[in-house]
Structures are given as structure tokens and as C-alpha cells.
Amino acid sequence: MFSLFSILRFAHIVAGIFWAGGAVLMNFFIVPAIGATGDAGKQFAGHLMGKTSFSRFMMLSGMTTVLAGTYLYGVNSNWFSSGWMMSGQGIGFGIGAVAGIIALAFGSMIGSTNGKLAALGAQIQGKPTTEQMSALGALRKQQTFITIGNATCILISVMLMASARLFG
């Protein structure tokens, strides 16, 4: 019979695959394609973010990954009180966990910024005003920083989670 630990490990890995895969696909391929395709890209982005459950799916995958991972780390570390935390394995999993938690925070910020971009886009009729262009530029700059941070933290987390067992 499967134990809670086994079920949560399975959930952590599967949700992490969906979360990391979705984030890498979005940040490295879909977002650049949206930017390169002008109005058609904006229309696609509006549909993807506003009319599908992609954002909710990503947040649910991230939350499942982080919550299950926290439980797994807690069990392995005797609820954050054992010397294992200072072993190579414990440090690798710990740094990977911190990177994953930061990535989840960035993911939340991506959703918020997307909402602001969508609201601003809905206000723009025809050619944007100077103020709208300024606001749009600031939001795009913020979004670029957030998506790079998100992708970087997810990749660090994945690399450490995949290799921490080799650290001793």
C-alpha cells in the first residue's frame, strides 16, 4: 500500500514537471512568439490568459509542488531539526526548495502583472496615448524582470532537486 510520503512524492514530481515545463515553454517560446507577432500575438495572449485555465493550472501546479515538497523535506529533516539539513543532500534540497518558493512568488506576480496588462489593453482604443504607452512600457519591463526571475528560479530548483541525492 502506498504511504502518504509516496503519494506526496509522486504529486510533487508530477506537479513539478507540469509547473516547470509550462514555465519554461511560456518564458522561452510562447512569450517571445507573442511579442514577435504583434496584434495576433496580443489576441492569442489575451485568449490564453483570459479564456483558458492556464494561469490557474500553473498556480495549482506550483502550489502542489511547494506544499508537497515542504512536507517531504519536513519528514526527511525530522521537521527541520535534524543534522541531515546540513548534509550535502539536505543543503541541495533546501536551496532547491527556496528557489522553488521564490519561483512560486514570481509566478503569482506574473498573474498580477498579466491582469494589469489586460486591463490596460482593454482601455486602449486605437492608438495608445502617451500615458498608456508609458504604463504599458513599465508593465512590460516589470513582466520581463519577473519572467526571467521565475524561469531562473524554476531551473535552479529543478537542477538541485534532480541532483541533490548525489551530494552525499
Description:
With 168 residues, the chain is mostly helical. The chain has one domain (4-167): Four Helix Bundle (Hemerythrin (Met), subunit A). Helices cover 83% and strands 0% of the residues. The protein has 5 helices and no strands. It has helices at 4-36, 38-51, 54-76, 88-123, 130-163. Helix 1 packs antiparallel against helix 2 (38-51), helix 3 runs antiparallel to helix 4 and helix 4 packs antiparallel against helix 5. It is elongated. The model has no long low-confidence stretch (mean pLDDT 91).
* Total domains: 1
* CATH domain class: Mainly Alpha
Strand content: under 5%
Rg calculated over all Cα atoms: 19 Å
The mean pLDDT is 91
Strands, count: 0
| Principal-axis shape | elongated
Short descriptors:
168 residues, mainly alpha, Four Helix Bundle (Hemerythrin (Met), subunit A), 5 helices, 83% helix
